[in-house]
Amino acid sequence: MKKYAKFISEDIDESQFIGIIVAVLCIILTLVLFAIWRRRKSVGRSVLITGLTDAGKTLLYSRLLHSKFVHTHTSIKENIGDIIINNNSLRIVDIPGHERLRYKFFDKYKQTARAVIYVIDAVTFQKDLRDVAEFLYTLLSSITHQRNIPILILCNKQDQTMAKGSAVIKTLLEKEMNLLRLTKSSQLEFTDASSSNIFLGKEGKDFEFTHLNNSNVQFAECSAFSKDPNTAADLEQLNIWLNKIA
Ligand SMILES: Nc1nc2c(ncn2[C@@H]2O[C@H](COP(=O)(O)OP(=O)(O)OP(=O)(O)O)[C@@H](O)[C@H]2O)c(=O)[nH]1
Ligand SMILES: [Mg+2]
Questions:
Q1: Which of 54, 60, 124, 157 has the most ligand 1 atoms within 8 A of CB, as the residue to mutate?
Q2: Residue 204 has pLDDT above 80, yes or no
Q3: Which residues does ligand 1 sit against, CB inside 6 Å?
Q4: What value does the mean pLDDT take over residues 146-175?
Q5: Which of 33, 49, 134, 243 has the highest CB neighbour number within 10 Å of its CB?
Q6: Gap between the Cα atoms of 85 and 65, Å rounded
Q7: Greater confidence, 29 or 199?
Q8: Measured on CA atoms in the order 35, 40, 41, 46, is the torsion positive or negative?
Q9: pLDDT band at 193, cuts 50/70/90?
Q10: 128 backbone dihedrals φ, ψ, rounded to 5°
């Protein structure tokens, strides 16, 4: 009888043990599946706002998220927030434009990018043309060979009378990118091919945004600023583009 009782208790212990292992395995599996689901959800949902410092990225971010004007200072870290467009949630990431920070933060978020907004200050554009083109060249080099990412070149500060329109900006940028490409391809003979030395566009032809493989570059104009706080900023073209990519 004693022997029989021992047999039963051993049997229960063993089945309990198996039960515990199965439960632990189920929990681990659920956690793994949850982590994969979270990752999938965040990949390809971010819209990165980038560009040189003072272009208006943080004000645009505030307009998109809270529809309001804010007094901004040079950003030293990113701003991240979600908006809903076409029933889809987009994660807006405002990346600092300071030259020491812009590449670091862009690299951090580029894997999750669904689209990129490259903001240009249309007033100081001509003065900063070389810098604007150089940063854009590097961005395009680092994303166009990955996958098709829509890019919006947003010519901001259109409320100012000295602001250049998007057609002029496009023409001047193409010319500057062409020059930059010449310099970069001559540098290639001396250095290893790094991502910033990738040849953009078609060989033997002047640089054009339409020649870029694997990317869809569009131009738009906007104004994130309005003197009267009750007047809405002009983000119409930006909103049309966001609706397309959402
Ligand atoms: N007139 C005018 N001023 C603008 C517009 N958008 C932004 N600004 C002003 O430009 C200045 C810089 O704007 P920010 O949004 O801080 O610029 P940023 O691109 O975030 O700059 P960093 O954080 O340094 O990269 C602020 O004084 C804004 O009020 C615009 O559409 N029109
Ligand atoms: Mg900022």
A1: 54
A2: yes
A3: 53-59, 72, 74-75, 96-98, 156-157, 159-160, 223-225
A4: 94
A5: 49
A6: 11
A7: 29
A8: positive
A9: very low
A10: -100, 15
